[in-house]
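A quick aside before the break. I want you to see a complete sequence-to-structure record at least once, exactly as it would be stored in a machine-readable document. Don't worry about memorizing anything.
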Amino acid sequence: MKKIITFFIFLIAAIGLFVAATNNNTNDGLVVGDVAPNFSLKNIDGKTVSLDSYKDAKGYVVIFTCNTCPYAVMYEQRIIELHDKYAAKGYPVIAINPNDPEVKPGDSFEKMQQRAAAKEFPFAYLFDDGQEVYPAYGATRTPHIYLLDANKTVQYIGALDNNPQDASAVTTKYVEEAIAALEAGEKPSTTYTKAIGCGIKVKRS
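That is the input. The structure line, written in tokens, reads:
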């Protein structure tokens, strides 16, 4: 009798954990196959930019990144090169800084403008003021990448490539491979990877 009671207690607990995990998954932002929400955010030039600003886009490389995270800094040049290579093909980079400048003063709008000027960013660098966009997408790191197709459907989520520390040692370029698949009319073979970077600095309550 004790074994039966123990079994049912275990079963109820397991069901509870499963339901909790399922509920959490529905609140963690976008998954591959979801249609990404649009946004209207201030660019470093003061203009408002949204996904709809790119009229001829075949896709969008939305990257949550910042000035201060060492991983974001390591990826800066590669992100520039990605935009230079693919924007003309219809896949522009749209960078979004999700950090709260009260927590990280180096990620203020003014510092974003300075960083973009110093590095000559060729892409939009938007400020998620109010921190409403990154949770809608489910971003947790800087950098964290969402590749969308022309219909704003998520096709890939994760890292740019498989070596943040050393660009010369990269063996797999996840985003480039995903774009190549879309260009060929196919689905990317890799749709998720782990985003490696710093945690997003959340606005204090």
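Two observations worth writing down. The chain has two domains: 1-30, 31-199. The first helix runs from residue 2 to 26. We'll return to this after the break.
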